[in-house]
Amino acid sequence: MRSLILLLLSCVTALLLKTDSALSDAGTPSHPALAALPANMVWAWERPEDLRWLPDDVGVAYVASTIMLRGEEALVHPRTAQLLVREATPLVPVLHVDASWRLPPALSEQQTSRIAQELLRVAQRGNRHVVQLDFEVRRSQRPFLAATISAIRSRLDPSIALSVTALASWCLDDTWMQGSAADEIVPMAFRMGQEEQALRRRLAQQQGFKPAYCRSAVGFATDEPILNLRNKRRYYFSPTAWTADKWQATPHPLQTNATLSQPQFLTASQ
């Protein structure tokens, strides 16, 4: 009996080690909706954008709404800038959340509820069952963000994947987001502060982010050198309006030579 127990323990241990190794290599298993999302996505910020020229295999994550947390308030500002895309373009709505510096937010349950409510609303404006939360917080605000992500995930339809952006430092030594309720975490490998050059060298040396939950996606900016990381999905931010020439000049994985057809146009506004 003792030999059998030891054998079973050895098998379980081997299985756990194998699973952990697979996660380290491939990243956290994807939500089905994320698995169907394109490998290349452009971020469309709150400004007029005409993206009808995008190749068929490139998606758009666009700011659908913004919330400003100020004191006890959670002020909602739906998108007003025009966004033009082709009807077949994969669309992921993004909820951007800012916290006031002049009047720090109370970080109340009511504000969490308002964020979750607005994210559930904009989630219906996509066409790929994926929604994204963009919320950079200070160290003292991390528990609020973690609680907000959990609240959103518990209220969101299970068929809809929740993607969350993250500072690059949160996926290096400061791995406080481990165990997050998000289905995808997108570390932003740009605008990394005073230690940016050191962080870039480190990411290049270790070939990307080590935590498994930070290896499925990554964000880059077109006005900074783009690192050759192995994340399965890449989001690209441009500080100015996108153009076809800018996209062609941006290093990204090879795409299919899809011929752009002339389908109906879709306007995403609010």
Task: Note down, in words, how this protein is organized.
With 270 residues, the protein is an alpha/beta fold. The chain has one domain: TIM Barrel, CATH 3.20.20. Helix content is 27%, strand content 26%. The chain is built from 6 helices and 12 strands. The chain has helices at residues 2-26, 32-35, 109-123, 142-155, 196-205, 244-249; strands spanning 40-44, 49-50, 58-70, 73-78, 83-86, 91-99, 130-134, 161-167, 184-188, 217-221, 233-237, 265-268. The strands form 2 sheets. Strands 1, 3, 4, 6, 7, 8, 9, 10 and 11 form a 9-stranded mixed sheet that branches. Helix 3 (109-123) links the parallel strand 6 and strand 7 (130-134). Helix 3 (109-123) crosses helix 4. The longest helix is centred in the first third of the chain and has 25 residues, at 2-26. The radius of gyration is 20 Å and the shape is globular. Residues 1-29 and 254-270 have low confidence and may be disordered. Residues 1-24 form the signal peptide.
Model regions low in confidence, pLDDT < 50 over at least 5 residues: 1-29, 254-270
Q: In the CATH hierarchy, what is the class?
A: Alpha Beta
Output the number of helix runs: 6
What spatial form do the alpha-carbon principal axes imply?
globular
Sequence of secondary-structure elements: HHEEEEEEHEHEEHEEHE
CATH architecture: Alpha-Beta Barrel
Q: What is the number of E strands? A: 12
For this structure, the CATH topology is: TIM Barrel
C-alpha Rg, in Å? 20 Å
Mean of the pLDDT scores?
83
Q: What is the percent of helical residues?
A: 25-40%
- Describe the biggest sheet? 9 strands, mixed
